[in-house]
Amino acid sequence: MFGNLDLSVLQKLWWIIDSLVGSLFLFLTFVQGGQTLLWQLGKTPVEKSLMINSLGRKWELTFTTLVLFGGALLAAFPKFYATSFGGAYWVWILILFTFVIQAVSYEFRKKPGNLLGEKVYEVFLFINGSVGILLIGAAVGTFFTGSNFSLNEYNLVSWTNPLRGLEAAFSLFNLSLGLFLVFNARILGGMYLVNNIDFTGYADFEARTRKWVLINLLCALPFLLYVLISLVVMDGFGVDPATGVVSLVSGKYLSNLLAMPLVLILLLLGLILVIWGVISTAFTARRNGIWFGGVGTVLVGLVVFFIASFNHTAFYPSKAYLQSSLTIHNASSSHYTLTAMTYVALFVPLVLAYIAYVWRLMDTQKISAAEVTGKEADEMY
Amino acid sequence: MVEQMDLTMVNWARAQFAMTAMYHWVFVPLTLGLSFLIAFYESIYVKTGNEQWKRIAKFWMTLFGINFAIGVATGIILEFEFGTNWSNYSWMVGDIFGAPLAVEGIVAFFLEATFFAVMFFGWERVSKKFHLFSTWMVAVGSNLSALWILVANGWMQFPTGMIFNPDTARFEMQNFWAVLFSPVAISKFTHTTSSGFLYASLFVITISSWYLLKGKHVQMARKSILVAAVFGLLSSGYVVFTGDEAAYNDAHRQPMKLAAFEGLWEGQKGAGLVAAGIANPSKQLNDDKPPFLFEIRIPGMLSLMANRTPGSFVPGIKDLVYGNEAENIKGVEEKMRRGKLAVEQLALYKKAKREGATPTAESALARFDQNKAYLGFGYLQSPEEAVPPVSTVFYAFHIMVILGGFFLLLFLLFLVFALKNSLAQQKWLLFLGAISVFLGFMAGQCGWIVAEVGRQPWAIQNLLPVSVARSNLTAGAVQTTFFMFLTIFTILLVAEIGIMLRQIKIGPEGE
Fold first, then answer.
1. What is the C-alpha separation between B227 and B356, in angstroms, rounded?
2. Per the count of CB atoms within 10 A, which of B186, B250, B336, B395 is most buried?
3. CB count, 10 Å around CB of A213?
4. Phi, psi of B355 (to 5 degrees)
């Protein structure tokens, strides 16, 4: 079935699948966003405990999605994996480091004998939610601003900047994208907590959580606007479809948006959904803002990945040597591998279905103060 | 490529990967085995309705959770180290190696991650049966994760189902099923997961033995031991069986590894198996010194293990390095000559193609095809480089095998005395049980040393040496991250041990 598809179709299909995984990860960064709100929202030990336990039941999903994102990129676009991870060394190492310290923090934080004390694990969670997401944003930003590498004829990467990827964080565009993602994660985190916690008897806590969703949107807006305006006016890395030659094209990303009206619609719809999620959380008693914000984030994420790569665009451009830039066509796996993995991807709907089922099953009953302070309290995070 | 090699960086990158993998393997085998043991305990609870089994399941679940998190933390580093430190490898074999990793993420990790939350926090939120189902799903998901990463590892030991594409200068997959069902991948999966079951059974026995020695939580400890002894006995039997299969695979696919872990320098017909011995530390490839200062050898056993025939020939390290015409074994020198031809012809092919010189390109490609099976040897500097560190691998293998035999006996004794209900009286056995998890840890680490050090200098057997698989990084960068991860992993390990000890001291709720 899939074996009959053209290689370029499979490459696009896998870019869409990888983009979807990446965008779902951005939605699931509500966990990271929530972690950065811990001190702002959790004014008492019970409130903090409610937050940690609410987020702690989802942290693994975010983590696993990140791992899948890495694995799927290696499988479908190994040249990108090799170039970016082997080249932009420090930025990826720091990102990974923040996820290592996150992975143990929920489990270890409250356990007696945890060596570092509760506060340190909370700081770990904050670092993961702030520095980790900021650097991921900066790394994604290089899809538009370019990186400093060259590939030889064996496709082996040499990085030409001694900062080995950290230089990405010094670009205003990359930094703005990173900060937008941090604030967006905080917006999603707040909306998730509103959805997931039983606030009975904790009206102040609820009001504070709802208020901070709005404040975080206001903080995110300048960065979002800067990113959007830059995308409209900046030069992009176009690929000549006939020769494969990469060149700087003025207004490339704007022309990508205009050439793909569906993507433009996705962007507008995504932004509207996120804003509606915030408004409904901040100004009404509704609890379902996370779903609007989540879907909106996924849509905006897809747009970011699509305009970086489709319509003859190099998705991982090299500023140093334009012709080393990666496109979804020159960076992908073989036809056979993409076909085999497409069959495996048929499991994705099943996976999404059982995740949704279990999520619903577990979250029908909201996390309450009674639960985190009751007889099972020592089994909680 | 060869001119740019920086062996210091390669060594640091190897050290970093080894360190991460060894830390990972402290925690992961526990996850693999303990998840099933918890599922057994909970199944008994659901079947009998006896609350004590629920308390037992919950107690081991607490320890499982503490261990699980740090296994996940070390695992993510392993996955991304392929890209950061081994980017040439990622490019050259990503087309094949990446697929199992992606499948692992899709079909296994989410199973584990999704049902993990139900297992820990779903007691009051879902039905008893759905909770049990979730516990089983965590066990299945954990072990499915192991399947895919071990398939990937098995492929590195025995590359199959692929072809080298000279245009892209990489290996590309041709047969997914050949990769998945490669005999090395199968034996790697079965041997490794069953060793995890064994290790987890020892973990339960260690803690339960300590309780019995202290006279605490006696009922819970007895019940835990009974199930763990059965599981451990079955697992250790299976470990022996799959270990034999792994050795047979080594004999035919990685004969240098087999020769190294047996300390077999000269090939022999009817070769004996060294049951125990002290390797001669001054022994070199090109001397005639005796390989052992002391040895106990079982005649004909190595030939039987390697070829299923007692009198058959088993090649030694010298045969493999220098060749043995009588046994039709090509030496490394000859393979290097052909490998270098392959490397040269590949470069010529690419140059001719770039310049549009089609006839030159075609003839270069034809010559490359004749020699491509030896491509990796073209990057070696000397034939001796093809020999792994013999003593390290020899001792690691023998410690692992001796401990494997000991565990079989230990589980049997625990089972017998548990069935006789006289465990509490066997102080000597409880003492052995109380230290057994450390021995299990040692056996597991030794197993990986045999598998990974034993296949040096190859990242991909015969095709890609580690010196070419590396990223273009400075040694200083990798050294820095080595110490960074060493520090954080050590801190987290100490924290984990501290938390575990405290939880063990507290013991199961209501016992």
1. 70
2. B250
3. 28
4. -90, 0
CB contact under 8 A, B102 and A115: no
Predicted ipTM of the assembly: 0.92
Rounded CA separation B224/A256 (Å): 63
Bridge partner residues of B172 (DSSP): B163
Q: What is the mean pLDDT of chain B?
A: 94
Residues with Cβ within 8 Å of A256's Cβ and at least 6 positions away in sequence, in order, are: A236, A263, A306, A307, A310, A311, A313
Q: What is the CA angle A328-B97-A327, rounded to 5?
A: 10
CB atoms within 10 A of CB A319: 17
C-alpha A104/C-alpha A126 separation (Å) is 13
Residue A377 pLDDT class (50, 70, 90 cuts)? confident
Mutate to test the interface with A, among B60, B87, B181 (most CBs of A within 10 A): B87
Phi, psi of B464, rounded to the nearest 5 degrees:
-145, 105
Q: For chain B, percent helix, then strand, then coil, each to nearest 5? A: 75, 5, 20
Query: Whole-prediction pTM value?
Result: 0.93
As beta bridge partners, residue B273 has B298
**How many Cβ atoms are within 10 Å of A250's Cβ, its own excluded?**
11
Q: Looking at beta carbons, which residues of chain B come within 8 Å of A58?
A: 117
The tokens describing A297, both together, are 């984030």
The model's pLDDT over A157-200, given as tens digits with 9 standing for 90+, comes to: 999 999 999 999 999 999 999 999 999 999 999 999 999 999 99
Report the distance separating Cα B333 and Cα B285, nearest Å: 14
* Interface residue A353 vs chain B (CB under 8 A): no
Rounded Cα distance between B153 and B159, Å, is 10
